[in-house]
């Protein structure tokens, strides 16, 4: 029997990209196409597609650190609740105005 060869994969360092680079790459991809932009920037198409999806779904929050993103999400929840209450109050005031307008006539 021959000893089995153990192949070692060359460990690659993972490249990191700044949020500004990602945003600009997505913008370039929208202008000239994802394949061409990825090729020009030296990144994979799948990276650029993932960044595009992230920006589409999260907007400006797409590449924020999780700690900042959760703060923004909490603020959004609070504001949505406030909007819900204000809409409910507005509906009550509309009904009251209609009621009092009939009473005066």
Q: How would you characterize the overall build of this protein?
A:
The protein has four helices and no strands. 7% of the residues are buried. The N and C termini lie far apart (105 Å). It is mainly alpha-helical.
Detail the topology: elements first, then pairings.
Elements: H1 19-32, H2 34-41, H3 45-58, H4 66-104
- Assign an overall shape: elongated
Q: Sheet bearing the most strands, described?
A: none
Rg over alpha carbons: 26 Å
Count structural domains: 2
Q: What portion of the residues fall into strands of 2 or more residues?
A: under 5%
Structural key phrases:
105 residues; mainly alpha; 2 domains; 4 helices; 71% helix; elongated
Give the gist of this structure.
The protein is mostly helical and 105 residues long.
């Amino acid at each position: 029997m021959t000893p089995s060869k153990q192949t070692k994969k060359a460990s690659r360092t993972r490249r990191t990209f700044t949020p500004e680079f990602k945003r600009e790459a997505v913008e370039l991809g929208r202008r000239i196409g994802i394949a061409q932009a990825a090729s020009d920037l030296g990144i994979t198409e799948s990276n650029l597609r993932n960044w595009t999806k992230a920006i589409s779904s999260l907007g400006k929050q797409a590449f924020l650190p999780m700690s900042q993103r959760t703060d923004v999400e909490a603020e959004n929840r609070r504001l949505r609740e406030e909007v819900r209450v204000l809409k409910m109050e507005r509906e009550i005031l509309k009904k009251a105005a209609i009621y009092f307008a009939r009473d005066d006539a």
